[in-house]
Amino acid sequence: MQLLAVGLNHTTAPVSLREQLALAPEHLGDAVSAARNWFARLDPQPSSHGEHEAALLSTCNRTEMYAASAAPEPLDASAHFLADYHRLNFSELRPHLYMLPQHDAVRHAFRVASGLDSMVLGEAQILGQMKDAVRVADEVGGLGTYLHQLFQRSFAVAKEVRSTTEIGAHSVSMAAAAVRLSERIFDSVSSQNVLFIGAGEMIELCATHFAAHNPKSITIANRTLERGESLASRFSGRAIRLADLPELLPQFDIVISSTASTLPLIGKGLVERAIKARRHRPMFMVDLAVPRDIEPEVGKLDDVFLYTVDDLADVVRTGVEHRQAAVAQAEAIIETRVQSFMHWIGDRAVVPVIRDLHESSESLRLAELERARKLLAKGEDIDAVLDALSKGLTAKFLHGPQQALHRAQGDERARLAALLPQLFRGRR
Fold first, then answer.
1. Do 327 and 121 contact (CB within 8 A), yes or no?
2. Are 29 and 139 within 8 A, CB to CB?
3. Active site annotation includes 206
4. Which of 168, 242, 327, 378 has minimal CB crowding within 10 Å?
5. CA 367 to chain centre
6. CA–CA separation, 136 vs 397, rounded Å?
7. 186-233: per-residue pLDDT in tens?
8. CB of 361 within 8 A of CB of 397?
């Protein structure tokens, strides 16, 4: 079984490609099952291996698959699966993928869980997203011994990093970055009407940051009005339905959107009409969704300032120098835990060998014991039988190593000659 991680993120692929690989939460389970079936079809000896394992993590900044498989060339198989499942051209997707085997995959998982691989260094949201992905994979049978251990240790490492370093102390969130950008367009948020589209965790975070600047009004637009009202009440705002956007959009100066919609909610024509109704007063828009909620063409309109998650990257990287010491400390913790996990994998690799040794040794022991019992039943001398029993066991245990030593030549014989005394040296 080979452990691996294959995927893309905000450093390897633009949002236009990431949104094509994005998986809605309700589709993660089906994707995990499809990945396991993909590996099973490629495995030439499925009966001799354990079940293929898989889990998929999909956020606005990444889509990646973690797997443990005995299929031939599992890294290449994983990359082809992502292309095939999303109906993308493999040759176009491949340059944007990272393909990480064993040791590198473990380090990557630990770094992702700890927030070291995020656009916002040290952000905590990714840990919850990873836990949700693991829960879904477990529900559909995607987790086995390898991935279960990998993720449990990833969560433990993340907890250790966050509790012993200041990796998140100076982080600038996407929400805070959105506020900063809006202040480049408007003198003050306090005189602006702000619209939030969606009612999830990211919108809640953004609303909290904007509310701290006392905007003129806060409105939540959501598919489910009840949920929108619940969030809006926390900020003394109001809630509207998504269906009301065409009529009400011109009222808003700042629009922040983050939903799980698979298709854009706001098109170029809708925004054109809104700008005309606003008599060309500027509109600041931030699309934090992947796939995108706002058509990219909207950004080409005059008087519209549209930003995506990738556009916010420069802002959230501000202050990185303040976090370098914490990063170094976190990386050191992760490296130690990676070595520990690789030792565990090494132990797992020799389990079948140890099991075979026990079985063959037990077979030899039982054969010699049966022979000794027959001799005792014939009335043979007990001491003579015990002596024969001990010699017989010794001879049979040493037969294999002696034959291997005789058959070996050159360097192989030298290695065996050095190794065998260590294996059969008795405790003194």
1. yes
2. yes
3. no
4. 378
5. 51
6. 48
7. 988 999 999 999 998 889 989 999 999 999 999 999 999 999 999 999
8. yes
